[in-house]
Amino acid sequence: MTSVRFPTGFVWGTATAAYQVEGAVAEDGRGPSIWDTFCRVPGAIAGGDTGDVACDHYRRWPEDVALMASLGLGAYRFSVAWPRVQPDGAGPANQKGLDHYRRLVDGLLERGIVPYLTLYHWDLPQALEDRGGWPARDTAYRFADYAAIVRDALGDVVDHWATLNEPKVASHAGYGEGIHAPGIRDRALRDRAAHHLLLAHGLGLSVLSGSGEVGVTLDLSPVVPYGGSRADAEAYDYDNHGMFLEPILRGESRLPDDLVHAGDLDLISAPIDYLGVNYYRPLYVPRVPPELPVTAVGWPVVPSGLRDLLVGLRDTYPDLPPVYITENGAAYDDEVGPDGWVDDPLRVAYLHAHLLALHEAIEAGVDVRGYFLWTLLDNFEWAEGYSKRFGIVHVDHADQTRRPKTSAHWYGQVARTGAVPQPGPELTWKTESDE
Ligand code: FCB
Predict the structure, then answer these.
(1) Dist. CA 24 → ligand 1 center (Å)
(2) From the CA of 77, how far away is ligand 1's center (Å)?
């Protein structure tokens, strides 16, 4: 069978986020985060689930690192929980929290797995929310202090850093739509949160300067009009993507001057070593074409969207830095078979088709350095709780048993060989480029 080969040195990993996997929310002096609080709001999370236990990764990380190594994965993108490091969001470091990440990073390095550390994946210390949260400018300065603590503690062993994961989701879902923590619905506060997250990124870049490869992860999608006007789609694209891409890559903001202070954009547009791209699906405005296949969270499966996104980014931003795909993956209703095996052919097909589309983008000249599959373990999927399974490793949430799915073995082979088989008779997936 022929296969497509990725460039030498291409990085293959998986990604997780602290609140989604760690559990141990009161361990070793961790303070509460906005997600601990939000999970207590009746009706906020499917099934009333919380991240209290999650995948118990805080304690079981040695087993999980061993699993990654057995699959042949070369990198692990994880996030540090700010409330473990600064339980109140300010002041001196909680050494026990830092020690945990030190052990994790050492464990990864011992197994030859390269750590990619994200400083903020949505778990703001509740104490900072009580002082105004991201709509308050001061939160960005608190983030810079936190970044400096983590840099001082781990800078000798971590070479790959991201300031933020998906600031748009933090601002828009958290402060605009209220479907994520802290559950606020206010357009003006949303925009303030968005700018202060960007400012935190900019301040974080200064703090991390000289610490290795430093970037930021955005959730990006091609925006496609379907049943609506191009102008509406463009407005939606700005609101979801341009609001973040333009300040970071061009030093431009359309937000008002009383919010964007002099000098902010210089910080925010300081050069990044890479842009992290999370891609799951195109966004159709105002509605999704009914004929498209969808995953268990209802997201349409359109692999060519990944190629189109990357080629479009490069064309729109000629100075686009190198890219890592920092998340891509799919939720399906996986079940443990009678023999204990978890077969997930739809996820394999999704990954397979997306990797071929990614390869097309590389062939088209986009500088992509690596791919992080979302996600290693079935975990706490935010407002969906444990009801949605994105993992390549099945987790029994009753007893924490890990069962690598078919997709884990398939992806391990990709990671070990750096090659993706062309679709064969047993694995066909129609992409737009096949037509
Ligand atoms: C992204 C998040 C990640 C996970 C996936 C499915 O928006 O960064 O934590 O929830 O979606």
Answers:
(1) 20
(2) 13
Torsion of CA 327, 331, 337, 342, to 10 degrees: -10
Distant-in-sequence, close-in-space partners of 18: CB < 8 Å, separation ≥ 6: 78, 79, 80, 81, 84, 121, 123
The residues near 15 (Cβ < 8 Å, ≥ 6 apart) are 76, 77, 78, 116, 326, 327, 372, 373, 374, 375, 376
User: Which residues pair with residue 223 across a beta bridge?
Assistant: 283
pLDDT digits (tens, 9 = 90+) for 84-102: 999 999 999 999 999 999 9
The CB of 360 under 6 Å from ligand 1? The reply is: no
What total number of domains does the chain contain? 1
What sign results for the dihedral spanned by CA atoms 193, 197, 199, 200?
A: positive
Is residue 326 predicted with pLDDT exceeding 60? yes
Give the count of beta carbons closer than 10 Å to the beta carbon of residue 88.
17
Secondary structure (3-state) at 260: coil
Can you give the pTM of this predicted structure?
0.97
**The two structure tokens encoding residue 286:** 């105002």
Q: Is the CB of 390 under 6 A from ligand 1?
A: yes
Using CB atoms within 10 A of its CB, is residue 178 exposed (0-12), middle (13-18) or buried (19+)? middle
Domain of residue 363: give its range. 3-434
Cβ of residue 219 lying under 6 Å from some atom of ligand 1: yes
Q: Ligand 1 atom closest to Cα of 381?
A: 10
Confidence bin at 2 (pLDDT 50/70/90): confident
Q: Which of 421, 286, 404 is CA-nearest to residue 334?
A: 404
Torsions phi, psi for 423 (to 5 deg): -60, 130
Is the Cβ atom of 191 under 6 angstroms away from ligand 1?
A: no
Which of 102, 216, 94 is closest to 158 using CA atoms?
102
In CATH, what number is assigned to the domain containing residue 262? 3.20.20.80
**In sequence order, what are the beta bridge partners of 419?**
5
Residue type, 82: W
Instruction: Indicate the SS3 state at residue 197.
Output: helix
Report H helices in 254-389. 264-268, 304-316, 345-363
Q: What is the DSSP letter of 137?
A: T
Asked if 166 is an active-site residue, the reply is yes
